[in-house]
Amino acid sequence: MSAEHLHAQFIRDGHCCIEGVIGPDEIGAIRENVARDVREHSILPPPQGYVPGFLRFNQALAPYLASPKLMEVVETLFGPHSRISMVTGSINGPGIPRGDLHADWPFNQKNASHIPAPYPDAPMHVLTMWMLTDFTHDNGATIIIPGSHRLSDHPRKGGEIDPRQPYPGEQRLLGKAGSVAMLDTRMWHAIAPNVTSEDRVAVIVRYAPWWLNLDPLRPGTVDRADIVEANNGVESPVPPLPREVFDRLPAEVKPLLHYSVEQ
Ligand SMILES: O=C(O)CCC(=O)C(=O)O
Question: How far, in Å, is the centroid of ligand 1 from the Cα of 263?
Answer without folding.
Answer: 30
